[in-house]
Amino acid sequence: MDFECIIYEKKEGVAVITLNRPQVLNAMNKQLWLDIEQALADAREDEGVKVLIFTGTGRAFSTGADLKDSKGRSLQAYRNYLVHLQEISRQIIRYPKPTIAAVNGFALGSGYELALACDIRIAAEEAKFGSPEARVSSSVTGGAMRLVQDLVGPGKARELLFTCDYIDGREAERIGLVNRCVPLERLMEETLAMAKKIAANSLFSINLIKKGLNMASEVSLEALMDFEVEACLATVSAPERLAKLEEFAERKK
After folding, report:
1. Which of the residues 67, 68, 114, 150 has the least number of beta carbons within 10 Å of its own beta carbon?
2. In the prediction, which pLDDT does 21 show?
């Protein structure tokens, strides 16, 4: 499978999407989003893929939208582009398989939003996160208005979005924006180790748990607890459950 703007690899149950436009710090143009969408579809259908990782080549995860790509675009064409971008972001947020962002450098604007859409974020110490949109008379996309608040709280989210300040990996870890901050040379090692730990568990269970976690902010507690009953029943009646129980019993002998 050939791509113009990403590198797509699969190994040992893990798929890696590497944003690959280093000459423009992995700025996101229309083709890059289309490549991501195609890779997402492939990884979703591949039963051998249990976890999906996003990262970037060179000095950046992604510095955000490629402004050259939007030059001369009509307002209607821009609307169509944004609607499609939002749909791809929804696909990542609601992706049935766990997603991890390995943030190697600058994660700004829509690059930052891509990291936010993932389930887990692991950052290099020198990574830089930020939303510069208000600085250039623009606004955020990708669900960031809710996702940032969910991670760092309403007050800190407003501070970051209103000031357009950038923060490094250590500060991102301190405020809860990322799960873990590590030296750059250990970034992919740590990310792959976590991905393999997740991949060893039941993908069916994780899919249902992730669905419930996404529902949690959208439905009542009563509706969520009803879903939890159905999710539990679905997992315990699956063939995989019997295999896991037998495997557990054998370890106890």
Report:
1. 68
2. 97
